[in-house]
Amino acid sequence: MDAAIVTVGDELLTGDTENTNATWLCARLDDRGVDVERVTTVPDRVADIARVVNEYHAEYDAVLVTGGLGPTHDDVTMEGVAAAFGREVELDDAAAEWLQEEGYASEDLVTGTAELPAGARPLHNTEGVAPGAVVESCYVFPGVPAEMQAMFASVADEFDGEQTYIERVEAAEPESALLDRLAEVQDRFGVTVGSYPGETVTLKVTATDPEAAREAAAWLTDHVQQVDESAE
Amino acid sequence: MDAAIVTVGDELLTGDTENTNATWLCARLDDRGVDVERVTTVPDRVADIARVVNEYHAEYDAVLVTGGLGPTHDDVTMEGVAAAFGREVELDDAAAEWLQEEGYASEDLVTGTAELPAGARPLHNTEGVAPGAVVESCYVFPGVPAEMQAMFASVADEFDGEQTYIERVEAAEPESALLDRLAEVQDRFGVTVGSYPGETVTLKVTATDPEAAREAAAWLTDHVQQVDESAE
């Protein structure tokens, strides 16, 4: 299973807000074996949201959208997602009921917030107000991190990729010195190895077979300089 | 002037690394009055990089690409950017010289790192090793934040948008209660106002005329409940 994430918000594109939602969703999807192929931030504009969601829906198994739900003038994500699927937005009865239970009395606010793409499955926001929605394989979540995380958890079982197994080895050598051994371990065990330089170089072994991941990590441990050795 | 940012790296798509480069570049471009229209993360794959860079080059005034430079097997950004422009990569003499000055002796490493899209303008990496490049209006920077930041600074003058002026007002009212006044201040002063809820609601006024920004902020200060008042 593969997926794309679309984060909506001018505040992300001006650098006013760090896009922690994207990183959080990427990690959860990776845990479930789902390959994230794109993460894209778009402005609070209906046409931009619609274009990108439409393209990704055609290409990937699932699209996850966050941000831009609610009653303010720049909350246009539901309109954008509706347009991506050639639908209108309409008042969702379940969503309107949730809002009234939360004490939202104003007709205007309830209507603005409870309008979802026609035929969407509404998602309850247990940590806040604005409801989410599922349209075919497109999931729309709020932008507030706690709300998004709780709503993702309520549908997490619907994201089911090939389970992968991960092992990590720390190397006390420059990344450039490791190239031949990284190529060799990938060939030898049929695994994928990423190298992430920091104070040491983290080698991340990923495999669909847990035994292959463990054997590749053991081979790397024998063949690269260990962090402990170099600390002496 | 508008722009798109493309960040390259599997480690971003698995949530192993927070995409701080994108946020940093967005803020610098916003400071210079450049509208960032897209921020997209793509995997370390030539075809994906090429497709996205090609699309954004056709649509936006500038494309900024970060990550995936260097000698390891998954550093394929230069090939991807070259393919986006229908070019080959070729050894750049200036880039090779910089690497040799850094003490890179191995022929293989120099070649792998100093190959840039044919006809590109090389960019010196003053904080690290892998050179960057400019191809038409596409800027390619390293992924290591300190290296990317220094390299962006060396070409920052080439990003020149319409100067905008920003004022911020903190409101001690729920965002939903502010809707009418946000609409009114935008109409009245011809400014854009974003609202960012947190402990208080930050209202960010943006205008091309500094006087309009100040007047709108003063109007908001008079018409919304202030944080100090509510603290009493």
UniProtKB/TrEMBL annotation, chains A, B:
* Pfam short name (any one): MoCF_biosynth
The segment(s) forming the MoaB/Mog domain are: 4-163
| InterPro entries noted in UniProt | CinA (IPR050101), MoaB/Mog-like_dom_sf (IPR036425), MoaB/Mog_dom (IPR001453)
Entries under SMART domains matching the protein: MoCF_biosynth
Task: State the superkingdom.
Answer: Archaea
Which PANTHER family does this chain map to? NICOTINAMIDE-NUCLEOTIDE AMIDOHYDROLASE PNCC (PTHR13939), NMN AMIDOHYDROLASE-LIKE PROTEIN YFAY (PTHR13939:SF0)
Give the protein's recorded name. Answer: Molybdenum cofactor synthesis domain-containing protein
Originating species: Halolamina pelagica
